[in-house]
Design goal:
Layout (H helix, E strand, L loop, with lengths): L12 H12 L7 H17 L12 H12 L5 H23 L11 E5 L13 E9 L4 E5 L5 E6 L20 H16 L9 E5 L9 E7 L2 E16 L22 H9 L3 E3 L10 H4 L2 E4 L1 H9 L17 H18 L9 H14 L11 H18 L20 H17 L35 H25 L1
Helix pairs in contact: 3-11, 9-10, 9-11, 10-11, 11-12
Length: 494
């Protein structure tokens, strides 16, 4: 589907005509002051031109209606939200009381919760079955933050030896803070808490899941007492070390995110003044160093939540009596499509996650920052624009982290090239077929999308049949069933 380039802009024709006449007039002598004024106007038009973009993307009425229909079905029902909130809030309040009374672990006694993730950003889709909460732990002293990669993972060392509660979580050198010890203690405390805790809904209970090697969270699942096979809800508790604002962010990310045109210079300064957090996440890869095994990943979840809440260029977007936009609806649609793709191709797209979509979304907002571009009636076009941006990132193999631009989330080290090519093919196929996976179906058996022979290919080859790949794959089970029926009839006739 054709898309207009971003540099195809509609500018103020009167001002543009005036500048042209001035430049071409043989009788006018342009003064240095006039030249500077002209250059300033042209620069302003260049910087603010994207505010006047009109995305005239041709969309069929059927596709537009399909996108709008699925957008309405993504919101969580009020009844489900109330029940889930009651369960999670009760768990949080009682766990906090338990930690504050736990004298054996004084480092956790001053902990506080910070609600993050899609539910609290109000972009959770389908049902309230996943929650993320950060458990803030205060850093007792200034830290040396040593980069282990492009600025996403760090080794944290104390500037001076400490005799405080944090001493129990240091390595043998008595300086390096151990991420594994923090996470191990968190697991132990949560298990101890659950021995006496009762869920408000007496028919349910929480269970702690097995630890995943690179996960920074203590993950719990809520089950019905008589049915432990069906998970009702999952909860990720992430211990997060808060760095004092006076110390500032690490040097590589100190410039802050690119939100000057989108949210304004003042909000950008406010964001940079907020503390940053480190979560106990181990770096991926084999044969990693001892420092990497105790690594911490920097987290900006709290800032992402702030940007999602105050997401408008005019500062009043989507408030109670203000004009509404379709930004969050577009992100929810993209999350739904990613969920559908992962459900359809679990092995091939195992490395894909909703955060890739969210990162592409934030980059898109920083470029298409004017509220008028995200008017509710433009939902279909805006979503296809966002989907095209994700495809562009995948084609280039470049998706910079929004806060740590030196870290590429589509780097071959973390996102294999074969998976990236598969993702591009899947997105192209979805657009060609009218986004059939926008609304995830019931779980199906894994199907493999056919790609070209080269791992570096990013598009489907033109010599493939005109019928869609998914159509061929969907016909396969029917053929098998027909074959079984024929064999059965032949057996009966004998």
């Amino acid at each position: 589907m054709p898309r207009l380039r971003r540099d195809e802009r509609i500018v103020d024709r009167d001002m543009d005509r005036e500048l042209t006449l001035r430049a071409s007039s043989p009788t006018e002598v342009t003064s240095p002051c006039r030249q500077r004024q002209k250059q300033k106007v042209q620069k302003q038009l260049s910087e603010e031109g994207s505010m006047l973009v009109e995305d005239l993307v041709p969309i069929s009425p059927e596709l537009a209606n399909w996108i709008k229909l699925n957008s309405k079905g993504l919101k969580i029902r009020k009844k489900d939200r109330q029940w889930a909130s009651e369960v999670v809030n009760d768990f949080r309040e009682n766990l906090l009381k338990f930690l504050r009374s736990c004298t054996k672990e004084p480092f956790f006694q001053s902990a506080e919760f910070l609600n993050t993730g899609s539910y609290f950003e109000k972009v959770k889709i389908h049902s309230p079955d996943e929650f993320d909460m950060m458990l803030k732990l205060q850093s007792p002293a200034r830290l040396d933050m040593k980069e282990l990669d492009g600025g996403l993972f760090y080794q944290l060392d104390l500037n001076h030896q400490s005799r405080g509660p944090i001493q129990a979580f240091l390595l043998d050198n008595e300086r390096t803070l151990s991420s594994s010890k923090i996470l191990k203690t968190m697991y132990r405390l949560v298990r101890q808490f659950l021995k006496t805790y009762k869920v408000p809904d007496e028919l349910c209970h929480w269970e702690v899941n097995r630890k995943r090697p690179t996960s920074p969270a203590v993950t719990l699942s809520l089950y019905k007492s008589e049915d432990v096979d069906e998970e009702l809800m999952s909860l990720d508790l992430v211990p997060a070390l808060e760095i004092h604002p006076s110390q500032g962010w690490p040097a590589v990310v100190r410039s802050g995110p690119d939100v000057k045109n989108w949210l304004g210079k003042k909000v950008r300064l406010e964001i940079k003044s907020l503390p940053c957090y480190f979560v106990p996440k181990r770096m991926k890869g084999r044969n990693i160093s001892d420092e990497a095994k105790e690594s911490w990943r920097i987290s900006f979840s709290h800032i992402e939540k702030k940007m999602m809440t105050y997401h408008g260029n005019t500062k009043t977007c989507c408030e109670s009596n203000a004009t509404k936009c379709c930004r969050k609806s577009c992100l929810m649609l993209l999350k739904s499509l990613i969920e559908g793709l992962k459900q359809r191709f679990p092995k091939e797209l195992d490395d894909l996650c909703s955060y890739h979509g969210k990162t592409a979304f934030l980059h898109t907002l920083s470029v298409r920052f004017d509220d008028s571009m995200w008017a509710c009636e433009k939902l279909p076009g805006c979503f296809l624009y966002l989907l095209g941006d994700l495809e562009d990132h995948a084609r280039r193999g470049s998706l910079p982290h929004f806060f740590v631009p030196d870290c590429n989330l589509f780097s071959p080290l973390v996102f294999p090239r074969r998976t990236l090519a598969f993702l591009v093919n899947a997105l192209v196929e979805q657009k060609r077929e009218g986004l059939p996976l926008l609304k995830p179906p019931a779980p199906v058996s894994p199907l493999k999308l056919r790609t070209s022979h080269s791992e570096d290919s990013s598009v489907l080859t033109e010599d493939q049949p005109t019928n869609s790949l998914l159509s061929h794959l969907n016909e396969l089970p029917i053929f098998i069933v027909a074959l079984v029926v024929v064999v059965f009839l032949m057996y009966v006739n004998k």
